[in-house]
Amino acid sequence: MAFACLIPRLVFAEGPVVALPEELRGQLSLLGKGSVGEALPAQPIDDPARLRHLTPGIWTYRIVAGPHKGEDQRVQVTPVESSDGGDHWRVETGDSDIQTLLVTSSDEVIKLSQTDLTSNRTVAYRPGLVLDPGMKAGESKTVDRKITTYKTEKMKDVEFNGTLRYTTRYIGAYRVDTPAGSFATRLLEHTYEMEIGPANAENVSLSFYADDIGNVAEVSRESVKALLIYRRSSTNARLLLESPKD
After folding, report:
1. What does the DSSP 8-state code read for residue 236?
2. Cα dist. 30→24, 25, 239 in Å?
3. Can you give the pLDDT at residue 28?
4. What H or E segment, with its residue span, contains residue 48?
5. Per-residue H/E/C for 78-136
6. For an engineered disulfide with 8, which of 84, 106, 203, 211 has Cβ 3.0 to 4.6 Å away?
7. 136-191, pLDDT tens digit by residue?
């Protein structure tokens, strides 16, 4: 386990220093006092693949807020063989979900599908959700996508078709302290607004990424409504405990 101070070169780069927006401080306080430190120079995201750092191994997180507070969460990343071109990856988060990602030759990271292990349903995105190179601090990008759900045991049978509005916002760069060390990170806000079948869902995550490490801290909240009879909401937060050694 790496407890040394791990500060990627982002610290020494030139770029705008963006103070953490006041409206986010309350949400990020779930990570714990002092976890989010000073603002740092924020370079453009030239290589999203370095940000996500998809490499075989297991990342372990400590859940610090939410129903599973105090527990550890394992995220396992494995390569997937494919003849479609690019590098395909399977990202499995505990007993929660499985994501399928593609890294293209131009360093785009594309989310192709996500399987909810609780409901045994898979959502496919058409086309996939892309994290593009070149985004600068303060910029945001919104795309509309068609989505399809399948029951995992019947992947040939479409259950519902729907729509998704996906927004990525690059907020800035900040030092983040975790049990695994201190990191220079970029903070991205991911917002998913989905309408499919009888359900409306919104998921917003505030995710801190360190180059060549991946996600080191995150606060997420989810709200699901189905007609007038079902409502669910939850908020979770996690900090990196251990990452694979290159």
Report:
1. E
2. 11, 9, 10
3. 97
4. helix 48-52
5. EEECCCCCCEEEEEEECCCEEEEEEECCCCCEEEEEEEECCCCEEEEEEEEEEECCCEC
6. 211
7. 999 999 999 999 999 888 888 999 999 999 999 999 999 999 999 999 999 999 99
pLDDT for position 7: 53
pLDDT in tens, 95-137: 999 999 999 888 889 999 999 888 888 999 988 888 889 999 9
Distances from the Cα of 159 to the Cα of 24, 71, 114, 127, angstroms = 36, 34, 15, 18
Outline where DSSP puts E strands in the chain. Answer: 36-40, 57-65, 72-80, 87-93, 97-103, 109-116, 121-131, 140-151, 158-178, 181-196, 199-210, 214-226, 230-242
Q: Which residues contact 22 (CB under 8 A, 6 or more apart)?
A: none
CA distances to 21, 31, 34, 95 from 222, rounded to whole Å, are 21, 17, 25, 17
Average pLDDT score over the chain: 89
- The label of the residue with tokens 């399977």 reads 90
Structure token pair of residue 210: 């360190």
